[in-house]
What we know:
Chain A is mainly alpha-helical. Helix content of chain A is 71%, strand content 0%. Chain B starts with 8 loop residues before the first helix and ends with a helix.
Amino acid sequence: MISEIDLLPYLRSSDRSSQLGALRSLKNSVIGHAEQKEWYLERGVLDDLLRIINAGDQDGIHDDVLRECMVQAGVVLGSFAHSDPEISAMLHTPNTIATLISVLNSSSPPQLLLPSLRTLTSLLTARPPSQSLIISYPNLSRSITSLLKHFSGRVPIMGIDNSVVTSLCLLLPVLAPNHSNAQATLNDALALPLSMLVRDILLCTPEPFSQADTRLLSSAILAISHIMSPATANKVSQAAPDFVRLLIKLLRTRDATTRLAACALITSFYSAAQPDVIDHVTRVPQNNEIAILLVPTLMKLFDDALAVDDGRGCNPLVLHTLAVVCREGGEVADCCVEVGLIKKVVKIIAQVAPSTHSALRIGKAESRLLAGGLLCLSALGLHKEEYRKAIIEANALTVVVAVMSTENAPSVREIKIAACNVLRSLSRSVVLLRTSLVESGIVDGVVDLLGDVAITAESEPAAFSSSMKQLLEAASDNSTESAPISDVKSVTANNSGSDSKVSADEIENEIENEDSLEVRTAAMAAVCNLVLEFSPLRKPILDQGILPVIVAGARSRYIPLRLNSVWALKHMVYGDDMQTKGLVLQEAGFPLLMKLCNDPEIQVQEQALDFIRNLIARSDNYIDKLFDSVGVDTLFELLDRKLSMRPLNTDEDSQSDDALLTTEPYYTEIVVAAAYILVHIAAGCDHHRQTIISHESVLKKVITLMAHERDEVRLACLWIILNLTWIEEPPRTNSSDDLMMAIDDTATGSSAASPSSTQAFYLDVYKKRAFTLVRLGVRERLAALKNDRVLDVREKTKTAIYQIDSLTGEVSDTLDTERGENEELGVEVMEVDSASVVRNAYMYTDAPASSAAEIE
Amino acid sequence: MMNDVRVSKSSLNALVMNYLIIEGYQSAASKFAQEANISSSVALDSIEDRIRIRAAIHAGHIPEAVERINDLNPELLDTNPELHFALLRLQLIELIRDLASTSNDDITPALTFAASHLASRAQKNPEFLADLEQTMALLCFSPSNLVPQLAELMDPALRRQVANKVNEAILEAQGVMREAKIRGLVRVWGWADNAMRQEIGEVPALDLKNLA
């Protein structure tokens, strides 16, 4: 054995053979010996090893001795990576990473690839890079694809090839952190071939699997579930319809990691199917059927972990997967709660929760476990009041408060997001909002998470005012151009990756900030319900000056944050608190709102339209403000467009009326939101109603939409008709009203109109409106709705027919018995209805339920 | 009765192949694989490596065994500190044995080795410490006159035990079961045999020695 001190000169020798000898000795003296590793690293052996590994580039690796030198150097490097964190941290240099990546090509011998892959995985796990290597090394994803192809050519995969593919799969999750562009890139390149590989192995290998195959399967399945996007999930299902069935068979395999991996992948398969399924009715039962299969497997894994050390060693993925499974509620969530999921989760998280305010005390594994547990609770709390109560009773709120009051640090980011989600779920309960949540003292925690934004916003005042100017210009541009309509799928599947207009710089910024943006987004979601009018926390939160922060969030380029911020704003203008409405409007301003109404992201549009809907509800004042600030024509042009909103690719027959009658999910919500803005305008002063009547193209669309396939749309349109034909006594007008002046002019020369002549005049106006509606075909539509399958629609139809008939003098056959009664009675009936007009049209939306799936 | 149970040819072949690979009969395994037309997920050449490693340990050549282990699987000793400790302790025992056989009174080589390779490990792990202390006691007594506990350490059985551990660890890392499946079957047989004897009384005897 060459003495240890003597090795370095040999390593640096130009004679490859003596170099090889030195490398072998070095290998044997460092493997398993921590002191030797430290000793050599301190003497700069890392550079020597990297130089040897890199030598292949110049000399080519046809030289056998050099090839063996490279292998041995790679092995030594791999051994260094297997040591105490302080020692392996010395390896973490840009040169090491670059060298290891350069090795990853199919001309490298597998004996070199194997240690290189493992070293890379352990370095990246110990210290995740600020930016994924997939982005920093544009060729990396292609190299990985070709490696996979090269080593998995023939199934079964044997010997060292098997190990290389397994190591490759283990590397993928660390290369692509959650919600990143890296994930999308890898998904495009690898999800399909990896799925096919897993399928081939499952089809041609009889159980029981060898340990090597088990490891390969579990790592490959975990890698797929990590990078899988909804679009690819559908591609895989098409290419291999039996794939999910094969995975379901794995739920009973012997190896626990494989069972868990199968659960995770099946989950991402069926949750991926959601955005593309059009038929709302069949969606949920189908999911339940698959999800319910996973419950016994997942709960068994969970119970096994609890049995060992009270669950501290539980794989966080068990909890993360349970959270996804429960997110849809229904039978699956019921089953999980029945077997004690809530109590078991709280038992675990209470152990690992931070006891002091310092974030430093939480380990990585514990923080993932804690986050997983909190996500489970938030998923269960989304749906049932009963579960929310159970969560509170299990004392989960102490953990949430403890997490929220931990000082902000990157290590607790994930936990804080999860805690915000729990808050959001719990705040759906009005009872809890007024009791437990008030007492918990969470306000500071939430505001603190949002507070980061306030600091950022203040540090860039110049940028803000200039962007404000741009917004104003953009808003006026938009009003004259056709609406930018987005393809929802591309936005939800891939937040910013495919947007060619976004410069590389901006993408980089986005990635850098993505972490903190995620936290803000989650905090914003928690704020949503806390700022509702009836929440006792609204005032304390607003008192902390949070409004500008929310408005800043509504300007964010990060879609989920923008969505939740607009959502929060929408909730703030819900209700009768005119003072808050005024404050919010002052801070946000109509230009921003108009921009948001035309946002590329359709769900943001929905929230912005709902904001307007809430703002003008029961407030003539705000209808006027809307008209004055935005302009009547601009507004109606906007509403006109929203009523016929559809995805770009179905544009061809948008001219025909029939094309309006079916809309895809999300687009329906837009139509409904726009229709309810009209409902509220129609419930305003007389001149507000007159404005609607004078925009016939909008009216025509409303009447066409009365035959829409979705009852929400039909009902909204009926409300518009009802409000437009309702005889209000006395008419609500204001002094500057055009109609009022018209009366002045026409009322037989007298300077002021007499009450009776005013009344007669208005009756004429009402009649004229009714005739306009009749001319546009409302009667035919109403006749068809008399037999609607929805009771509410049928009832409103009767009232609408009655109102129109009494104005146009037609004989109504629906309200035959009431015909001939005096006018007062009719008015009375309608007054009752009018009250419910206001009540019904009054917009209240729960927390971001539909978007929750997208955000998480 | 046994004739009623149908065992497929391929299952039997797999069982035999499994035994040959795990127990390290390389040439028999490759012949058998050819004749029975079966493939194995373990490279057959690694069988020979395992045999050499086992032979080196049986012969007390621990550094050679370690080098071979590192060639075959460089991760094994890094990821398996207990195994590495067992090998290093065996190496220490071999050093002591050499000293005793040459009737050399200089125990410095053994002390140096223990200090540089074993002491720091023992500090971190109480089990290692106990093992090391016991081993160091060998230096104090004459090899011909040892208490049974210490005599065990000098017994060749310890080499076999460590060699077995190494073999199992290599197999496990290669993704093969640690033990031949047939051994498990034999244990099940033994258990069933016992159970039947208690229930029925008269059953043909099974002798494990005849099988192993």
